[in-house]
């Protein structure tokens, strides 16, 4: 998949395009992609970074990093992606000018979009305008109950199975393994301390079952109350794994919420509970 930052970096050719932020690349987004694919030309996505709402209204809790978004788009069969930097200046661009600069310039013939699709300054561009400008509109049926907002609400509640239904795959934590306090190794359950981008949504504190690097993982999200912690950490324990992950990127799937984090009457009680968490992780089922 070719990733471009400017229209001039893409060959002008017949294209079927999907336009949007595609945060999470959830089931609704994939419906748009499938509709665009049926347009019969080069399947192309025009996406924005940073998230438009982060520029216009303030911070947004993202479901995916840009890197992960691009990986998911490639997995969905997208051939070319144009990543447009979203700025205050872009927000002032008239819809007609946006269409000329970012659609016509790369050869777009068809645009897949739902009835509520809007673009350009003050969201004045719509499907009718696209047709007047000579683009073929490919109507997209909405996927009931699926939205990035709904998925965020599920994750805040720890309802990862419900989030997975909207995403069409398990929700993920995506970050870099950094050095922590090494308490897990001392307890016999070595963990990877995951540093994630501050803009990413981290689900409700607690213990989760999931997977990383093709192995099941028991994941702790929280402040380690047994040790009186105050800093939130993300610590996956990869079952039956030996190796050094420091400095590596790690994408961790969340399969099920197991329990709340807690302080225990003794370290032995904590170790016994972690062992039960590991067994629950071995029995967990990956949500589809």
Got a strand count? 12
In DSSP terms (H or I, runs of 4 or more residues), the helix count works out at 10
- The overall pLDDT, averaged over residues, is 94
Helix and strand sequence: EEHEHHEHHEHEHHEHEEEEEH
CATH structural class of the largest domain: Alpha Beta
Q: Mind telling me which CATH architecture of the largest domain this is? A: 3-Layer(aba) Sandwich
Q: What overall geometry do the principal axes of the alpha carbons give?
A: elongated
CATH superfamily of the largest domain: HUPs
Strand order of the largest sheet: 1-4-3-2-5-6
Structure commentary:
The longest helix is centred in the C-terminal third of the chain and has 17 residues, at 267-283. The strands form 2 sheets. A 6-stranded parallel sheet has the order 1-4-3-2-5-6. A 6-stranded antiparallel sheet has the order 8-7-12-9-10-11. It has 288 residues and is α/β, with parallel strands linked by helices. The chain has helices at 27-37, 52-56, 66-75, 88-91, 95-103, 127-132, 148-156, 160-167, 183-187, 267-283, and strands at residues 2-4, 15-19, 42-49, 80-85, 108-113, 136-139, 172-178, 193-196, 206-212, 215-222, 233-238, 249-259. Helix 1 links the parallel strand 2 and strand 3. The chain has 2 domains: 2-139, Rossmann fold (3-Layer(aba) Sandwich), CATH 3.40.50; 171-283, Riboflavin kinase-like (Elongation Factor Tu (Ef-tu), domain 3, Beta Barrel). 34% of the residues are buried. Helix 7 packs antiparallel against helix 8 (160-167).
């Amino acid at each position: 998949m070719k990733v471009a930052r400017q229209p001039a970096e893409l060959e002008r050719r017949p294209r079927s395009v999907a336009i949007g932020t595609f945060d999470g690349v959830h089931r609704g987004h994939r419906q748009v992609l499938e509709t665009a694919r049926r347009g019969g030309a080069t399947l192309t996505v025009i996406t924005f970074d940073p998230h438009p709402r982060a520029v216009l209204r303030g911070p947004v809790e993202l479901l995916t990093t840009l890197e992960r978004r691009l990986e998911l788009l490639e997995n969905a069969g997208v051939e070319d992606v144009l990543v447009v930097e979203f700025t205050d200046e872009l927000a002032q661009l008239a819809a007609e000018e946006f269409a000329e600069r970012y659609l016509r310039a790369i050869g777009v013939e068809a645009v897949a979009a739902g009835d509520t699709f809007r673009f350009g300054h003050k969201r004045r561009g719509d499907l009718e305008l696209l047709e007047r400008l000579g683009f073929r509109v490919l109507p997209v049926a909405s996927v009931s109950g699926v939205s990035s907002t709904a998925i965020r609400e599920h994750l805040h509640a720890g309802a990862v199975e419900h989030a997975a239904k909207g995403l069409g795959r398990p929700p993920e934590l995506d970050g870099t393994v950094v050095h922590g306090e090494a308490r897990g190794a001392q307890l016999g359950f070595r963990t990877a301390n995951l540093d994630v981008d501050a803009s990413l949504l981290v689900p409700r504190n607690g213990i989760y079952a999931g997977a990383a690097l093709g192995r099941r993982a028991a994941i702790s999200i929280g402040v380690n109350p047994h040790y009186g912690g105050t800093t939130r950490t993300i610590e996956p324990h990869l079952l039956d794994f030996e190796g050094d992950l420091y400095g590596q990127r790690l994408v961790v799937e969340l399969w099920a919420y197991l329990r709340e984090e807690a302080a225990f009457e003794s370290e032995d009680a904590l170790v016994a509970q972690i062992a039960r968490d590991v067994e629950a992780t071995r029995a967990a089922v990956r949500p589809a």
